[in-house]
What we know:
Blueprint: H1 2-21, H2 26-38, H3 42-51, H4 58-90, H5 111-114, H6 143-147, H7 175-183, H8 187-214, H9 220-224, E1 264-272, E2 276-283, E3 286-293, H10 307-310, E4 316-325, E5 328-332, H11 353-374, H12 391-399, H13 405-417, E6 428-429, E7 434-435, E8 447-449, H14 480-509, H15 516-519, H16 527-533, H17 546-551, H18 566-571, H19 579-588, E9 591-595, H20 602-612, E10 621-626, H21 629-643, E11 651-655, E12 658-660, E13 667-671, H22 672-681, E14 688-693, H23 701-716, E15 721-726, H24 732-737, E16 742-745, E17 753-757, H25 765-779, E18 784-788, H26 792-808, E19 817-822, H27 828-831, E20 843-848, E21 861-866, E22 869-876, E23 881-888, H28 891-899, E24 907-911, H29 915-920, H30 936-944, H31 961-974, H32 985-990, H33 997-1009, H34 1012-1022, H35 1035-1043, H36 1051-1064, H37 1069-1074, H38 1079-1098, H39 1110-1120, E25 1125-1128, E26 1134-1136, E27 1142-1145, E28 1158-1166, E29 1170-1177, H40 1180-1186, E30 1191-1193, H41 1201-1205
Amino acid sequence: MEQLERLSLVSRIATELHNHWGISDKDLAEFVLHLGEESQSLEEFRAKLKANGSAVTQALAVSLYTSISKFVARSKKAKTAAATASTSSGSSGAGVKDGKNGVSPSPVKDSKDEQVSAPGSSTNGSKPLPTTAFSVSHHPPTEKELKFPGLCMQNRFDRPELQLARPDDNAPLSAAAQRLLQQEKDDKELMREQQEAFKRAKEGYWGGDHNSSSKGGISATGANALPIGGASGAAGTAAAATGAAGESLNFCGKRGAPLERYGIYDGVVSRVMEYGAFVQLDLAEGRREGLLHVADMSRPDGGPCVSADAVRKGQLVKVKVHAIAGTRLSLTMREVDQATGRDLKPRNLQGGTSCSRAALFESLAEEHAQALEKKGLGRITGVKINLNSTEEETAYSRKRKLMSDYDKWEAQQLQRSGLVSSKENPYYDEEAGGILPAQEAEEDVEIEVVDEEPLFLRGQTTRAGMQLSPVKIVANPDGSLARAAATAQTLAKERRDVRQAQEAAILDSIPKDMSRPWEDPNPQPGERTIAQALQGLGQTGYEMPEWKRLYLGKNVSFGIKSTLSIAEQRRSLPIYKLKEQLLKAIMGNQVLIVIGETGSGKTTQMTQYMAEAGLVTPGRLIGCTQPRRVAAMSVAKRVAEEFGCRLGQEVGYSIRFEDCTSPDTIIKYMTDGLLLREALVDPRLQRYSVVMLDEAHERTISTDVLFGLLKECCRQRPDFKLIVTSATLDAEKFSNYFFNSSIFTIPGRTFPVEILYTKEPETDYVEAALITVLQIHLCEPPGDILLFLTGQEEIDTTCQTLHERMQRLESANPPPLIILPVYSALPSEVQTMIFDPAPPGCRKCVVATNIAEASLTIDGIYFVIDPGFAKVKMYNPKSGMDALTVAPISQANARQRAGRAGRTGPGKCYRLYTEAAYRCEMLPTAVPEIQRTNLENTVLLLKAMGVNDLLNFDFMDPPPVQTLINSLETLFELGALDDEGLLTKLGRKMAEFPMEPQLSKMLLTSVDLKCSDEIITIVAMLSVQNVFYRPKDRQALADQKKSGFHQPEGDHITYLELYRAWQRNRFSNAWCYENFIQHRALRRAQDVRKQLISIMDRYKLDIISAGKDYKRICRCICAGFFRHACRVDPQEGYRTLVDHQQVFMHPSSALYNRNPEWLVYHELVLTTKEYLRDCCTIEPLWLCDVAPKLFKPADQQRLSRRKMRERIEPLYNRFEEPNAWRLSRRQGKR
């Protein structure tokens, strides 16, 4: 039996070697088995393989050693069992001794008895995450692990070469960063700063220096008593200048100390410059002078300063030697306590092993960067930086304008006739003194995709023929609900076309020549009246439709109206009655699941209850996550008001690119993505004593990843408490996942709801919903209506149609119906109108998206209409595109919608689908976001945390394998992963930026290409949406203004020039209004730009401007989005290089109708076609330079794949058959 198992193992090893190395040799497999049997650990096994000349990867070594170790363990166990059996049979005649005779039997221990149950530990056998870097799992590998070894590599948490030096958040910014931030201030901010500076100077004059000097100067004793190096450092500078000779420098510190790096010395300021100060040190080898940069000075409050305010000539300071370069010294004051001389940031390289290892890796990284520079590659990203075009060449190429043949002929004739001089020719160059030669035809360059798979994913991708199926979001694609969803899109397009035709007819009926009736002495009757009425057309704002103007009104109120005080409002919440029981449950459980409907007070009150109960330990916080940043800001503002403090003090919030907290903060609201990034730095979340995952039922990607990380944090920290809140009733899944934790339910008002189904499937659910609303309004007793639809366009169309039908029924004198829409694009003050009760005798109809399922609770709803559909964001791994598709909801969502009718009293739910469709065509629960969206950023974060075993990571719902494989491929092509699938130094830096991997790669590449200032602006502009706006009554003028910003390089450079123009106009809102630009979007982009400047400065990344060298900027954009490269399709539109998908340029693009041959796009959106958004022109050879792992130049000796796919299509002739031109069809014809 053992021989058979050995032969089976040899065959398995041979298969593994064939998949990874392409070698199928039984002798080699037996030799590998022999090495594994002699090895005691994975490291030893891998070292032996490498010693024998094999380039084995980590994934292959783990897979082989796991199989071999299991075989060795089984063989040893079999031998031990055989020896025990022979021993027992030999001594069967002897009596067996019991415990009384001195031999106690050894009972078989249950695995559960060996586990030590810590607070919150798993009781259902949940698998903990590995805590050692090279631990080998002892369970037999599953079929999926054997099939995808690249997804189940060993976790590695101790890679010191990837540990980045954490920047000091309290450290002042460098002078360059401060100068850039100063340029972002408008006139009001500058004037305010000047007034504050004048006020400080005035207070200092009358309160300090002026009074002291009037009394005969500052005494030496008083000067020595003042602090040194602060913002008021002028008061402490006279201590060394009290002698008769003011130029002499007095040293009062330890004299004659030897010079060493990171040593602390007393020094005297000898010169003060604009960029810093020079400090003299008295050393053993004599006096040395070093530079103290202004970035290394700071005020006592840690804020930025200028050198003249921080130090003065002759001032005694305590400095640390930061760097030694020959005879030059770099000094710093920030890391030294000026009062005691204590080192605030010890960095003794000779003192410890960890510091020595850090220094070793730092030196190795520097050597690697220098080697890259010698090869002409970037120090950070490794891309080629030898640009062929300089700034002058770029400007030269942009000066030339394309002219048609007729324009060229006309200019030539005018010049020959003598009417026009040669200097007026568009091609005239003043420097050359003549006409520029015609441009040479560009060489046709062919680029092909590299077929080789990454080494760690060999045989696991679709290139190798692996058939991978994504997660289905529809239970039955051929059912009635799926057909209705497809029909709804067609009907929506028809309604859109009808509406556009009506608007066009109205515009066509307007007289085009407004001045003719005034010039005509005898106009037709009424013409002047019409012209006068339409004289201001195109100058007014967009008029609100009649139904919106009628129901929403002009004067709207902000927030939900309440006459109660804040304390009374808190006591009126349902959670207030359960305060004591809730605190008792929190104290007695490490993990607690809290279920309560929206409006019960979970988000705002639980954090305050825990803070009042003393769950906040010194130095730690209570954290609460929100899925949306707007919710985090608004909730924090409300809690700060209830807590009785200013926002940002005891209660604050943190979102991406904005931090409103302080050292006094004890309650912190944040987005779930921000907490995930904090876990990247501190996996055990030592800053938090309690973390509350709010709105967990929404199941965002960040929340799902936090589930696994916080579950492990609970195992490692018994003092840590986790609270998971949800507004839905499916809490058993959360409880089972988190160690069978307790569930605390906040009871709400629930009444019975009658469920009504349709007898036959509905093809047009919008029309069915309109009929149902009118039927309820005319036939049912009083009570408000809640109608669920999918999106803004559908809601607006439905409200308009419903209003028109109510107008037709005015003759029947029906009761008034108030129509109120709810979707995310509406202003918040308009959304709050749905909470106001309807006037007596009226009925309110709320038309909402699925936001009203659990995020909102509206009182007075008795009737719910559920068509059974919602818009779902779905990621297609094949095309790499996110698309919003209309899909059937789940059974859990349907139950949640029906429950909305039972909050105030007994209600009814009209489901516009059959009961069979509910049971057979709907999934039990909704597909979480992690299973239907792109995971590149998530995988990068997990890799940065050391999690390489993505297949066995403790996801509540694991993502599809195809999405993980595609994410790993993309990260490998970006340079974030190496050939073994492990994180690179570049990937570790990319993970530090809170943005997509493509944007972070583009930002880091800009440092190598020396255009980081412009790329920061472009990234900030890409982070906001809808910078331009087109009023419906002034679309032509808005398009004309927008075209003035268009740049021939594409939309990215257009955004750059737009921001620069706004900056030249001193960030004026009036300028934005004149040019049809959203000033709020630009303000948001400005905030993002400021935060990116701070982040790059803290990580010591240079911020350099490239000026007008747009080719360098376009090359940098190509380095991040090379996978989005396209080429013109000979037939129509463009073709993507990676998957050969036909796409089209969006009409709003600056490159529309220019049709450049090569371009890259930022995103691909699906509306009526696959449109490219935010395009940028590139040169084809750049793709091979910035992405050699994906692209290569085509072989010139043979046809490229693109040309091989092209087909000769003859001109259409309606009198002949399509294939009549072929020779095979022309037989017998002459």
